[in-house]
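Worked example 3 (structure in, sequence out).
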């Protein structure tokens, strides 16, 4: 058994690396373990609005950046239905290897044990993690950053959880699927769907030009319970492309995406702290999280370091309590509830209403819609923005925003899609 660290972090994804880097910065003794080596390339690519990385001073870590950012919320029929909504706001993709490297550089002297945690015991002052190998590790506090599907974090059961699902291809195409140097956040045009498909849960195309005739196209279901299968998403992508006369000539990489959008917040009385997907930090209305990790890790690390400096004898439960309070402040909990409410409403909309909703949403001033998506608006401002959205919405959308619609609830056998934390 190793010596007892101040904090043991489980995981080696973006959440683990962000929090370890900040804990090290605070001078704490940190141990880490993960099922794979921390420098193993992450499987996913991470997108983010450029302003978010700029405000963090990390814009140099973007591998791609687009000025021409747009969406389509029309029906795809005729000139009117093909008009794009211009966002006039830069979007970027992290150079994921550079982000990983820069975080690892900050995790000075932390050596990850390549181990899979299988059990956690709370021994009073300390917490002990037992791994599949039989090895055990102790720390004053354990932070679970093992992702959305952690089996260690307790959270209430509020019924079925909605998941974001996507099937994407990086490849070469018979003709460009998006314009030169363009980034398409959401192409919701449904003109390739038949009558039956139009009644199924809506999906949209997320697409971008990588240069050198390489493009990334991804058919995405924002949130659905049960989630759309990869096969359905794949078929939708192919039918969308072929409707526009486009074939995929070469598949360079396939992306499969599935993660929960509205996991209930963890039970904040448990002696185990979490960070990242396991802490339900994904933005319930957009599915983004990396910006939040980078913004929220420093305050959490400072709070834990301060607590240990003032009271070195704090036990796991006391420390976790302080950590949960810092991670999920009352303000953030209220904002999370509003976002969950919003997502519930969105999930009840049929495809025409969903298009109308996003067309209205992106008519908000840029600082309002972007602040909403980044979760950087203070609560009173967020409420004002939601009220403004309601006021500028057409009547049929207003009704849906207040009462919700029953379009897809039937699939849930009467259970509520999302609970309230
Ligand atoms: C395909 C995809 C695309 C996404 N795109 C974006 C995006 O563009 N922008 C954005 O902001 N967000 C995006 N997200 C959402 C979110 O940011 C990611 O899911 C993110 O990877 C979650 O980070 P995490 O560190 O919490 O978990 P993960 O990245 O899942 O990392 C979990 C880590 O824990 C380890 N682990 C798991 N179980 C154990 C165990 N028992 N013991 C030890 N180690 C364990 C794993 O090996 C891994 O290292 C995307 C998600 C997916 C799935």
């Amino acid at each position: 058994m190793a010596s007892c660290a101040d904090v043991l972090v489980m995981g080696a994804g973006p959440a683990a690396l962000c929090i370890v880097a900040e804990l090290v910065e605070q001078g704490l003794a940190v141990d880490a373990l993960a099922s794979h080596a921390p420098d193993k390339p992450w499987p996913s690519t991470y997108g983010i609005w450029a302003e978010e990385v700029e405000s963090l001073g990390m814009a140099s870590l973007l591998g791609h950046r687009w000025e021409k950012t747009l969406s389509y919320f029309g029906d795809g029929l005729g000139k009117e239905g093909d008009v794009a909504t211009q966002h006039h706001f830069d979007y970027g993709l992290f150079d994921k290897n550079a982000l990983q490297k820069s975080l690892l550089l900050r995790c000075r002297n932390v050596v990850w044990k390549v181990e899979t945690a299988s059990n956690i015991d709370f021994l009073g002052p300390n917490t002990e993690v037992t791994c599949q190998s039989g090895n055990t590790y102790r720390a004053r506090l354990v932070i679970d950053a093992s992702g959305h599907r952690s089996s260690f974090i307790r959270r209430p059961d509020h019924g079925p959880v909605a998941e974001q699902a996507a099937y994407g291809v990086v490849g070469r195409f018979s003709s460009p699927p998006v314009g030169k140097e363009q980034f398409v956040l959401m192409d919701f045009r449904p003109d390739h769907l038949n009558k039956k498909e139009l009644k199924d849960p809506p999906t949209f195309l997320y697409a971008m030009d990588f240069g050198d005739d390489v493009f990334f196209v991804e058919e995405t279901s924002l949130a659905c319970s049960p989630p759309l299968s990869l096969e359905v998403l794949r078929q939708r992508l192919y039918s969308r492309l072929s409707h526009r006369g486009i074939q995929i000539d070469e598949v360079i990489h396939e992306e499969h995406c599935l993660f929960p959008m509205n996991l209930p917040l963890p039970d904040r009385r448990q002696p185990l702290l979490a960070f990242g997907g396991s802490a339900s930090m994904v933005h319930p209305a957009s599915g983004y999280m990396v910006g939040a990790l980078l913004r929220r890790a420093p305050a959490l690390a400072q709070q834990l370091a301060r607590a240990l400096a003032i009271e070195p004898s704090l036990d796991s439960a006391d420390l976790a309590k302080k950590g949960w309070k810092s991670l999920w402040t009352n303000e953030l909990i209220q904002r999370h509830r509003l976002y969950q409410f919003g997502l519930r409403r969105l999930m009840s909309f049929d495809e025409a209403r969903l298009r109308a909703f996003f067309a209205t949403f992106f008519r908000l001033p840029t600082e309002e819609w972007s602040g909403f998506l980044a979760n950087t608006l203070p609560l009173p401002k967020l409420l004002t923005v939601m009220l403004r959205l309601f006021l500028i919405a057409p009547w049929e959308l207003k009704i849906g925003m207040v009462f919700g619609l029953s379009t897809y609830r039937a699939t849930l056998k009467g259970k509520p899609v999302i609970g309230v934390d």
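Notes: The mean pLDDT is 94. The radius of gyration is 22 Å.
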